[in-house]
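Q: Structure tokens for this one, please.
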Amino acid sequence: MKRTAPICPIALAFACSGCAFSKLGSDLARLEDEAHLFTGFVSSEALEIHSTVVVAMDDPVAEVIVSFRMMSGDGVFELRLPKGPSWFFAFADLNKDLRFQEDEPYGWAGRGDAIDSGSGDTIGVDIVIGAAGLHITDRRARPVWNDLYPESDYVSTLFDTPLPENVPHNLIFGFRQDSIFGSGSSDGVIELSSQLRDAAQEQAVSVRGFDEGHVSILHSDAVIGNVYSLLDLAAR
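A: Here is the predicted structure, written as tokens:
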């Protein structure tokens, strides 16, 4: 009877390790082909010691957060992301809850514009965290956004003059909080306490909420259908 030579455990272990390293190498090569490395430096004008959160997004209003990094104060960060344009935002997480509040200092890379991936690694994605108090979407402090702060003269006096009786106010709002930005009840950017302030609800002839975020509500079939229904009703 022919005997089979025993397999050396050490040789078998090396063979399995070789397979694992081969798969790891192919996975890393695929990641290198599909992703892009962004490197930058976060510095702060506001605080010396703080927890910092760097966020990479697919859009400038944080509807889709691709990745983030937690840091202890200032320093270098690296993020490997899918190839394409990305927006980079950083804030001092003063209460360490991983959510941005409007009283926390923050800053944008590239003055709030998208950083596009080139053929090689992208370096110099630098962010300076400045003073708090600006709205999250006010990336360049455009004058048009200044009137949209909750404490602005425009918003604070918005309901001082009632609408004409023949102009109905139908209040539609979103309440999906699926973003790192904002705290409490919100649409991911604007808190419900602002969307549903007493004066707005008192003036509205109807109030309807949708399970949508700050951007998705603009593309929701249910919301669009509701708007057309209100327009048809007003035209009768």
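A few notes: Helices lie at 9-34, 143-146, 153-156, 192-195, 198-203, 221-235. The chain has a mean pLDDT of 77.
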